[in-house]
Amino acid sequence: MTSTSPPGLARFNTAEAGAARAALHEVCASTAWGSRILDGRPYAGLDALFAASDAAMAGLTAADLAEAMAGHPPIGRPKPGDPTSAREQSGMSGASDRLKAEMLELNLAYQEKFGHVFLICATGLTGEQMRDALRARSGNAPEQEREIVRRELGKINRIRLTRLAEGGAAA
Fold it and tell me: Tell me: the pLDDT tens digits for 41-62?
């Protein structure tokens, strides 16, 4: 359990609503998620913030999830100039041209089937692990995949909230 409030969390707890909302948007693009987290301030510690994030994520509608996913670039194609997506997808940075081409092809097939980008908590994963997960998840039913996406977003949010709470960049 977190016994003290990290410096970034203390700043977040007391930040003006607009600034706090902007920081939350860098964590997760869902307006509904951000509003729920904002409304729960102040947080006693990271555990309380995580619990609020998990509860907010569980309550997101399909449209809210789509809004959250829209904030994520496809695996293998981080947003140019965005250090967050580059850091989170670093497992693809040294990938071979063959693997990058395969990921592009798999991503396009996934997007065609599900109507959104393939989303995975890529932190710490190799390009091959991401590819294998993409292959495996491409066979899922849309409802099953939506719940997997919800869990992956929750993991990503926890990583990003940790950075925010520790005083680093929100995302």
Answer: 999 999 999 999 999 999 999 9
C-alpha span between 12 and 38 (Å, rounded)? 9
Neighbours of 45 (CB within 10 A): 15
- Give the span between the Cα atoms of 17 and 148, in whole angstroms: 31
**Bond into 42 cis (ω within 30):** yes
Q: How many CB atoms lie within 10 A of CB 131?
A: 21
CA–CA dist 91, 128 (Å, integer): 8
pLDDT, tens digit (0-9, with 9 covering 90-100), for 114-135: 999 899 998 889 999 999 999 9
Residue with tokens 């951000």: 34
Q: How far is CA 131 from CA 29, 88, 93, 168, in A?
A: 24, 15, 13, 30
Tell me the C-alpha distance between 50 and 120, whole Å. Answer: 18
pTM: 0.87
The two three-digit tokens of residue 98, written as one number:
């063959």
Backbone angles phi, psi at 141, to 5 degrees: -75, 150
d(CA 100, CA 108): 12
